[in-house]
Design brief:
Helices cover about 50% and strands about 15% of the residues. By secondary structure, it is an alpha/beta fold. The radius of gyration is 18 Å and the shape is globular.
């Protein structure tokens, strides 16, 4: 029914089942699995790894952009950040109780890393947000090591742009690099720069920077747990997000409905 993807590095290596949503490979993991994997990679001395927290927006971007689909395919760990993506995992027979919510994953990894001395770098957000995030994480989790922060320009970033920034990140020697640039910009940047950066683990977490610094309000927990975060965010920022949640969301629902109605989802097994 499914095939496996390497989940953890070194001697702890094991296999995680995976499935596809409209052609996008997703690992059927939960937050504790992802935390163990990321910490193993961060401490294992293996090749640089990337992690993408992916929901409806990322999936539908991949449907319409083959280059971006390839970016996600080459990402080492793709987790179900969105409720519909997680529900499809359940339909494939995986015991996925909750989605791997990016902001929650960031907190869990940061907390688990505090006694290990792992170094964190925050890349993204509006001016000042990365610094505020570093301060907030240090307040919540005393003992974490902040290797550095950087706020890139809001304009699109070319894959090979700003070599001095890459050099600065390498010099800071982070073990985990958090990227908050929004999809698909963040995934494209971290995957194309993976080898140049040389960071053990780079993670795209989207709006987590804004949520954890209070710049943007989060949906109540009951809405997040019931797949209604999109409605809260649409009502909070309709001019900025209506295209994502109404146009892209409608496109996603129609395509997924067609796959479910025709049984094509059953044949969408990972390569």
């Amino acid at each position: 029914m499914t095939s496996g993807t390497a989940l953890a590095g070194g001697a702890e290596a094991r296999v995680a089942p995976s499935y596809r949503v409209l052609g996008v490979r997703v690992e059927a993991v939960q937050i504790p699995d992802a935390v163990r994997t990321m910490l193993g990679w961060a401490r294992g001395g293996g090749p640089p790894r990337t992690v993408a927290t992916t929901g409806m927006h990322g999936v539908i971007e991949a449907v319409h952009d083959r280059e971006f689909a390839g970016i996600l395919e080459s990402t080492d760990l793709v987790v179900a950040d969105g409720a519909p993506v997680m529900w499809m995992g359940r339909l494939h027979g995986h015991p996925m109780k909750r989605r791997v919510y990016g902001p929650e994953l960031m907190l869990a990894v940061t907390e688990a890393s505090a006694p290990l001395g792992l170094r964190h770098f925050y890349y993204g957000g509006a001016p000042g947000v990365a610094d505020a995030l570093a301060a907030e994480m240090s307040r919540r989790f005393p003992g974490i090591v902040v290797a550095g922060t950087h706020c890139p320009p809001m304009a699109p970033i070319a894959p090979r742009e700003n070599p001095e920034v890459v050099a600065a990140i390498r010099a800071a020697r982070p073990d985990i690099l958090w990227v908050g640039l929004s999809t698909p910009k963040q995934e494209r940047w971290m995957v194309t720069r993976r080898d140049d950066l040389g960071v053990p683990v780079t993670v795209s977490v989207g709006a987590a920077f804004d949520f954890h610094t209070g710049r943007v309000s989060q949906a109540p927990a009951w809405m997040r747990e019931r797949g209604l975060e999109w409605f809260y965010r649409l009502c909070s920022h309709p001019r900025r997000l209506w295209r994502r949640y109404l146009l892209q969301g409608g496109d996603f629902a129609l395509r997924l409905g067609f796959e479910l109605a025709t049984g094509r989802w059953r044949r969408s097994t990972p390569r």
